[in-house]
Amino acid sequence: MSGRGKGGKVKGKSKSRSSRAGLQFPVGRIHRLLRKGNYAERVGAGAPVYLAAVLEYLAAEVLELAGNAAQEDAPVASAWPSCGNVRPGKRIGKLAIRNDEELNKLLSGVTIAQGGVLPNIQAVLLPKKSQKTPGGKA
């Protein structure tokens, strides 16, 4: 019976690769998608963990900016009692991304559905400010 190792080892409860890496995004699903997507012939074990970490960081960054923007634009709580919880939508997310320099550069070619457009008025279209003379006569 030599060469068979010690029998009777009890396996503990299985732990997902996401929890081992301390991530919320699914490492196993990303690994499967990388294998099925014909990106490479073989996919290393660390690649999906790294990609999941990058995607989770970007999602957290966008959600933080959108949450801050939604908090600033939120109506007064006393006037709108049902609006206690502020939840950022697509429009707020787009405004947050486009107002952030780095995220705007990263996502410059991305179209956000139902995002609308950035409010922008050209300077030449704005009314000219009238200048008053100090003597009171124009």
Could you walk me through the main structural features you see in this protein, from its secondary elements to its overall organization?
The chain is mainly α and 138 residues long. The chain has a single domain (19-116), classed as Histone, subunit A (Orthogonal Bundle). It is built from five helices and no strands. Helix 2 (27-36) crosses helix 3 (47-73) and helix 3 (47-73) packs across helix 4 (90-99). The longest helix has 27 residues, at 47-73. The model has no long low-confidence stretch (mean pLDDT 84). Residues 1-21 are annotated as: Disordered. Residues 1-18 have a biased composition (Basic residues).
Secondary-structure class: mainly alpha
How many domains make up the 3D coordinates?
1
Strand content: under 5%
What ranges have pLDDT less than 50 throughout 5 or more consecutive residues?
none
Oligomer: single chain
Distance between the terminal alpha carbons, to the nearest Å? 110 Å
DSSP helical segment count: 5
The CATH superfamily is identified as Histone, subunit A
CATH top level is: Mainly Alpha
CATH level-two architecture: Orthogonal Bundle
Series of secondary-structure elements, N-terminal to C-terminal: HHHHH
Overall body shape:
elongated
* Named CATH topology: Histone, subunit A
> Into which percent range does the helicity of residues fall?
40-55%
Mean pLDDT: 84
Radius of gyration: 27 Å
Q: How would you sum up the major sheet?
A: none
SS elements, strand count: 0
